[in-house]
Amino acid sequence: MLTHALPDLPAWTRWFSDAPIPVLAATAEELELLERVEATRGDVDAHQLADPVRQDPLMTLKLLAAVAQLRRKRGGGDSGGPETVTAALVMMGIGPFFRTFSGMTQVEVHLASQPEALAGLQRVLRRAHRAANFSLGFAVHRMDDDAEVLQLAAQLHDFAEMLLWCHAPALALEIASRQRADPTLRSDHAQRQLLNIDLLALQQALMHTWALPELLVRIADDNSQAAQPQVQNVVLAIRLARHTEDPARGWDNPAVPDDLAAIARLLNLSLPATETLVRAIDG
Fold first, then answer.
1. Over the stretch 87-127, which tens digit does the pLDDT of each residue have?
2. Helix axis angle, 115-141 relative to 159-167, nearest 10°?
């Protein structure tokens, strides 16, 4: 566990690029079951593997990073890699997948002595799932050919925060504590105060270090690509998921009307139709 802030972005990038990425226990168990099926029957395919991988943002990140490194070893360069979970699995192959990801560390075991941190991570994961659903729904409505990539981008949008909860839980808890004490304190400001960096900058650095798919990296760059509809698709999905995650306020959060207005403009819908759509997506 990392218990103190590192001095700068390069130091954080080096530390996290070498740190193992744990996965959810349910993911590890389902993949172990499929591995036994493959060992006895040999009929597991990429589509079967994709379902449990896609349900776990940490496993998805782990797979994409591994495939990117595999491409590098094969001379494939740092761009043009698979942009979806299924495509990444096809590139890696079923046998190599099971050999590469055998005996993975489970989040629940890794954070067994840190129940508050585990709860914090689970909140981020729930938000990521909702954001991914919103992003996919918006992309389908817009008939975007990259709908699955936009879903993936929303799911992974906060992966640096997930990794912070996993590997530096005391620091993640302190950031959360400061924001509870001062509701006006922005996340990026709290992060810079305590970590010497903001997590979106770390995320971009890690995506380049791991050579994640070029389209995914571009969509995840909220700042420089903010005007692009695909980036807006993801950012608005994340924003809505974040603003409606508090069980006490939910859809009554005062920020939600602005979110709905921005989504309505993106989707070219009326406000009532937009609210109907997003609530249907959220189930």
1. 999 999 999 999 999 889 999 999 999 999 999 999 999 99
2. 170
Q: What region does 224 belong to: left with phi over 0, alpha with psi -120 to 50, or beta?
A: alpha
The conformation of residue 56, written as its DSSP 8-state character, comes to: -
Q: How far apart are CA 166 and CA 121, in angstroms?
A: 7
pLDDT digits (tens, 9 = 90+) for 166-225: 999 999 999 999 999 998 889 899 999 999 999 999 999 999 999 998 888 888 876 666
Instruction: Take residue 266 and report the two structure tokens written for it.
Output: 């993106």
Phi, psi of 124, rounded to the nearest 5 degrees: -65, -40
Taking the CA of residue 63 as centre, how many other CA atoms within 13 Å lie in the half-sphere pointing to its CB?
34
Token code pair at residue 203:
């995320």
Two tokens at 68?
Answer: 């990117």
Please, is 248 exposed, middle or buried when counting C-beta atoms within 10 Å of its C-beta (0-12, 13-18, 19+)? exposed
Q: 158 phi and psi, to 5 degrees?
A: -110, 35
How far is 89 from 63, CA to CA, in rounded Å? 8
Residues 103 and 109 sit within 8 Å (Cβ to Cβ)? no
Q: Is 225 exposed, middle or buried (0-12, 13-18, 19+ CB in 10 A)?
A: middle
